[in-house]
Amino acid sequence: MEGKLKFCYDKIGDILYLDTCKPYAGQESEMLDDEIVVRLHPQTNEVENVEILFYSKRLAETNDFTLPLLADLRLAA
């Protein structure tokens, strides 16, 4: 994921969104294990968005969980 990471929570859908850009029509979508959706850049296949479904249910079951993604985090300039 390249770019600033934005977190948004949809209480009605119980979905946590992690976005580096707004989702757009040309993105590819892939459902990972544990009901996690990733949206990929169509040319580079880089992850641009992550949707964690049933987020509050996950937190009720455990206080932490691991995403099946590698992260290269650094401070935004």
Helix content: under 10%
Shape: globular
- Give the strand line-up of the largest sheet: 1-2-5-4-3
- Structural class designation: mainly beta
Uncertain stretches of 5 or more adjacent residues: none
In angstroms, what is the radius of gyration? 13 Å
User: What is the residue-mean pLDDT, rounded to a whole number?
Assistant: 90
What is the β-strand count? Answer: 5
What summary fits the major beta sheet?
A: 5 strands, antiparallel
| Element pattern in H and E | EEEEEH
Question: So how many helices?
Answer: 1
Strand content: 35-45%
Task: Please report the distance between the alpha carbons of the first and last residues.
Answer: 16 Å
In words, what does this structure look like?
This protein starts with 5 loop residues before the first strand and ends in a 16-residue tail after the last helix. β1 and β2 (15-19) form a beta hairpin. The radius of gyration is 13 Å and the shape is globular. The chain contains 1 helix and 5 strands; from the N terminus they run βββββα. The chain has one helix spanning 55-61; strands at 6-10, 15-19, 28-32, 36-40, 47-53. The model has no long low-confidence stretch (mean pLDDT 90). It has a 5-stranded antiparallel sheet with strand order 1-2-5-4-3, with no helix packed on it. The relative contact order is 0.24. Helices cover 9% and strands 35% of the residues. The chain has 77 residues and is mainly beta.
